Amino acid sequence: MSQQGYVAAPPYSQAQPGMGGYQGGFGAGPAQPLYGHYGGPPQAFNAPCLTCVAPGPMQSPPPPISSVAQQPFQTSPPPAMGQPQMPPGPQSPHMSPPQSPQANMHMAGPPMAGQSMAGPPMAGQSMAGPPMAGQSMAGPPMAGQSMAGPPMAGQSMAGPPMAGQSMAGPPMAGQSMAGPPMAGQSMAGPPMAGQSMAGPPMAGQSMAGPPMAGMGRPFPGPPPPGPGGFQQPGQFGGQMAGPQLGMPGAFPGAAAGMAGPPQKKLDPDSIPSTTQVIEDDQAKRGGQVFSTNMRGQAPPLVTTDFTVEDQGNASPRFMRCTTYALPCTADLAKQCQVPLATIIKPFASLPNNETPLYVVNHGETGPIRCNRCKAYMCPYMQFIEGGRRFQCGFCSCVNEVPVFYFQHLDHMGRRVDFYERPELSRGSYEFAATMDYCKNNKPPNPPAYIFMIDVSYSNIKSGLVKLICDELKTLLEDLPREDGTESSAIKVGFVTYNKVLHFYNVKSALAQPQMMVVSDTAEMFVPLLDGFLVNYQESKAVIYNLLDQIPDMFADTNESETVFAPVIQAGVEAFKAAECSGKLFIFHSSMPTAEAPGKLKNRDDKKLVNTDKEKTLFQPQKGVYEQLSKDCVAQGCCVDLFLFPSQYVDLATMADVPSHTGGSVYKYNNFQLETDGEHFLRDLRKDVEKSIGFDAIMRVRTSTGFRATDFFGAIHMNNTTDIEMAAVDCDKAVTVELKHDDTLSEETGALMQCALLYTTIGGQRRLRIHNLSLNCSSQLSELYKSCETDSLINFFAKSAYRAILNQPLKNVREILVNQTAHMLACYRKNCASPSAASQLILPDAMKVFPVYMNSLMKTAPLVGSTELSTDDRAHQRLSVMGMGVEDTQLLLYPRLIPLHNLDVGSEALPAPLRCSEERLIDSGIFLLENGHSMFLWLGQASPPDFIQNLFNLPSLAHMQGLMCALPELDNPLSKRIRSIISGLLEKRPNSMKLQIVRQKDKPEMVFRQFLVEDKGLHGGASYMDFLCYVHREIRQLLT
């Protein structure tokens, strides 16, 4: 194939025919047809010689590689090929189990899925040479070629059944097959979840008739080979006349019949393990100081405990990158397909042993900046001419140094006051902003928090209103405050509402709070100015009084209808009147159906799942809420929404304002005081107490040659450069995609500066600056060596979750698989030493990337399953958009901690295990958490003394109902396990509700979907099958 390398998977950016064009991309745009067109027409491929194209000239020593031998799924005994049998454990880099010619390449290509090839072979498929494997070669019809037999259970799919559905033999109605692949997995194609897609390409797209129907492709040159442009490898030595019998629904990655004689199964321990990678990094870099004095250093993993010493580049707690060595040219970037991005968490909290950011105050003159590009003074500015001028590191413009800032240079050309000035010696610091940086050139007022409680029937009846009012009495004592101040400057206000809004005057001079009702929700206004927003300490007595009265005042209500948009509008109006920014805490129970702006109707429609219209389920309803988001951002009004739904509430629309204002959405389905009360209060406390900045605007500047092109987060963008956030807290991250606009130089590297202008909780205007310098390289091996899997998956999750607003899930999943194969194939071709094609070779820094990618494709938003609630899918989609690297890492690979052999005396946690059912043992007890859910799993043979110490019960059989907390018992085991759980709850941004499940009980099903290395509950491949599948894709790209 041409040297130009692999063609990009279609970016989500280019508008493609038949695909909602989507601005902002996944990798570079394709020069050739969609999905790349590898090589010319399908070449015939002779079975026995499974070799891979030797890579071009080696560039620099290759990075360490971890190699995984491909699983030989086969029915016939393998012909001996003289290779040693594979030892367990990922050992020497190149080894592979004996291969049969068709191992792992059964069903050439993704089976020509759903293609209903009755009639002529696919046009443009240039079937020169022998017919393609699996393609009705005399005898049984092609896989997935509408063969009689019902379509797969739960697959609701128009058009012919899909590959792996009714293949030779019985239809796969969820039947559990012997052997790993797809037990009842409702799907055939790239192992993705339950979706209506058969082979990766455009499956189920009712491709009856001419190929690619429904995907008009007016491309020059030959049409893409095979379905959807995946090259079908030619026929393998004629061994596969149609699907093998005894092959109940094998899916592309799991070739050959799983029924039949037992096979040599690839040892799961021999494929790369996430827990091992985490453990190795902790062993190698844990407890050490990471000092940021070098350009382009890859930091320790997010899971490793380390201390950062800022010596001129921002700490990885503030900025992480998908790679710390950018490719020098756009062509290289396009060839390797590794997305270039940085994930910025501007307000990240620092551990106690790290220095907080210094504040630099230049008085009236304000921060010193480059005259041309407006970058702020930082370590990358070069002082020249004896210190009288400085040259900007971003745009090379030479600027005069202001007289007050002048300082002599030492013999190395460095300013004498280098170490006294944080802006010259540190990667992160703050500037006090002058009036020029304030609204209307006047200093801002401290922000305010307004608590808005839905007092409709269900919230009163569940006891929620009383719970909130009682909690607020103590919680308001802990409002965030500036370091070194006695009390918080934040003002507070209170509103209750159902169909109408009630505002409360809690001025300190009053004996009793006063209530004012606004019933005209169409023209929202705040009925009182003085006494609505008050200082908590001054008005404490009146506020206590109010919080005691609210539950009684509405105790007899039978009003079940609510409004929602007017509530947010009221908050914005209150902040406008007080000329401040702030946050609304809204506690809401049901869909707003009362007559008012923003009234919603039920539009949940399970029939849309797995169709091209599924994306509408994730799109907010346009109109009122869109305008509200803009008003909120303009006023610096952040919205945090606590939802307590008992049915569908159209979360996609209700959460639209929070997700554009830097807010969060918390959801408690079927809220019950006993089981969910404490869980909700933990979330509320964390939310009120967390450190936060308001009315923020952020800009990312870069040195010449590349720039920030796309932004993902809980943000609002008015133009292409300014990231606006009504508020930004310590858990919110913005993922920024970078693209080349010129060649980068290896000498100067690449510089980035993130500048965030915001108002502190004390009402000061500040600029927070984070600087980071990266290496540039013309060697792809350098790029792969300094990749960071956790950052890559954060980027892929956010870009895929944004893309599902505009494209069918099937396309998005395809692009994910494609790009995974591309990145790994490019590595194999350009960086790895030559080796047998039967081997999967992965870059060391990306060896567990496939497990995260497979897990991402099994997440609720990307699974087309009618069993999942639309609101839950929308909720997960939105919460991931604002997540930082550590949060997406944990979400996609939960921690599974064995507790049964816990050393009670030791402070150390037991080492986490791989997330797979194979790791569970009947006599074991395991804790699993992913930052959002937490389970305590009890094996059916758990030792009775363990159960006695933990639950004060003689055995598991005595456990009644669902428990959600461990009793407080006075014994070392109970204390230690409770302290582990509370330690995890403390550490994570969200509270987690502990769910205690017994092995083989019904609730255990929910627990199992978190074992991400196994098959998905709602469809989706196991890690092993996905790896085999990706390996096959890579081999196709390389042949």
TrEMBL record:
<feature type="domain" description="Sec23/Sec24 trunk">
    <location>
        <begin position="444"/>
        <end position="688"/>
    </location>
</feature>
<dbReference type="InterPro" id="IPR036175">
    <property type="entry name" value="Sec23/24_helical_dom_sf"/>
</dbReference>
<feature type="domain" description="Gelsolin-like">
    <location>
        <begin position="909"/>
        <end position="981"/>
    </location>
</feature>
<feature type="domain" description="Zinc finger Sec23/Sec24-type">
    <location>
        <begin position="367"/>
        <end position="405"/>
    </location>
</feature>
<dbReference type="InterPro" id="IPR007123">
    <property type="entry name" value="Gelsolin-like_dom"/>
</dbReference>
<dbReference type="InterPro" id="IPR036465">
    <property type="entry name" value="vWFA_dom_sf"/>
</dbReference>
<protein>
    <submittedName>
        <fullName>SEC24 homolog D, COPII coat complex component</fullName>
    </submittedName>
</protein>
<keyword id="KW-0653">Protein transport</keyword>
<dbReference type="GO" id="GO:0030127">
    <property type="term" value="C:COPII vesicle coat"/>
</dbReference>
<dbReference type="InterPro" id="IPR036180">
    <property type="entry name" value="Gelsolin-like_dom_sf"/>
</dbReference>
<dbReference type="InterPro" id="IPR006896">
    <property type="entry name" value="Sec23/24_trunk_dom"/>
</dbReference>
<dbReference type="Pfam" id="PF08033">
    <property type="entry name" value="Sec23_BS"/>
</dbReference>
<dbReference type="GO" id="GO:0000149">
    <property type="term" value="F:SNARE binding"/>
</dbReference>
<feature type="compositionally biased region" description="Low complexity">
    <location>
        <begin position="197"/>
        <end position="218"/>
    </location>
</feature>
<dbReference type="InterPro" id="IPR050550">
    <property type="entry name" value="SEC23_SEC24_subfamily"/>
</dbReference>
<dbReference type="Pfam" id="PF04811">
    <property type="entry name" value="Sec23_trunk"/>
</dbReference>
<dbReference type="InterPro" id="IPR012990">
    <property type="entry name" value="Beta-sandwich_Sec23_24"/>
</dbReference>
<feature type="compositionally biased region" description="Gly residues">
    <location>
        <begin position="228"/>
        <end position="240"/>
    </location>
</feature>
<dbReference type="Pfam" id="PF04810">
    <property type="entry name" value="zf-Sec23_Sec24"/>
</dbReference>
<dbReference type="GO" id="GO:0090110">
    <property type="term" value="P:COPII-coated vesicle cargo loading"/>
</dbReference>
<feature type="domain" description="Sec23/Sec24 beta-sandwich">
    <location>
        <begin position="693"/>
        <end position="777"/>
    </location>
</feature>
<dbReference type="GO" id="GO:0070971">
    <property type="term" value="C:endoplasmic reticulum exit site"/>
</dbReference>
<feature type="compositionally biased region" description="Low complexity">
    <location>
        <begin position="241"/>
        <end position="262"/>
    </location>
</feature>
<dbReference type="Pfam" id="PF00626">
    <property type="entry name" value="Gelsolin"/>
</dbReference>
<dbReference type="InterPro" id="IPR041742">
    <property type="entry name" value="Sec24-like_trunk_dom"/>
</dbReference>
<feature type="region of interest" description="Disordered">
    <location>
        <begin position="60"/>
        <end position="273"/>
    </location>
</feature>
<dbReference type="InterPro" id="IPR029006">
    <property type="entry name" value="ADF-H/Gelsolin-like_dom_sf"/>
</dbReference>
<feature type="compositionally biased region" description="Pro residues">
    <location>
        <begin position="75"/>
        <end position="100"/>
    </location>
</feature>
<dbReference type="GO" id="GO:0005789">
    <property type="term" value="C:endoplasmic reticulum membrane"/>
</dbReference>
<dbReference type="InterPro" id="IPR006900">
    <property type="entry name" value="Sec23/24_helical_dom"/>
</dbReference>
<dbReference type="GO" id="GO:0005829">
    <property type="term" value="C:cytosol"/>
</dbReference>
<dbReference type="GO" id="GO:0006886">
    <property type="term" value="P:intracellular protein transport"/>
</dbReference>
<keyword id="KW-0968">Cytoplasmic vesicle</keyword>
<feature type="domain" description="Sec23/Sec24 helical">
    <location>
        <begin position="789"/>
        <end position="888"/>
    </location>
</feature>
<dbReference type="GO" id="GO:0008270">
    <property type="term" value="F:zinc ion binding"/>
</dbReference>
<comment type="similarity">
    <text>Belongs to the SEC23/SEC24 family. SEC24 subfamily.</text>
</comment>
<dbReference type="InterPro" id="IPR006895">
    <property type="entry name" value="Znf_Sec23_Sec24"/>
</dbReference>
<dbReference type="Pfam" id="PF04815">
    <property type="entry name" value="Sec23_helical"/>
</dbReference>
<keyword id="KW-0813">Transport</keyword>
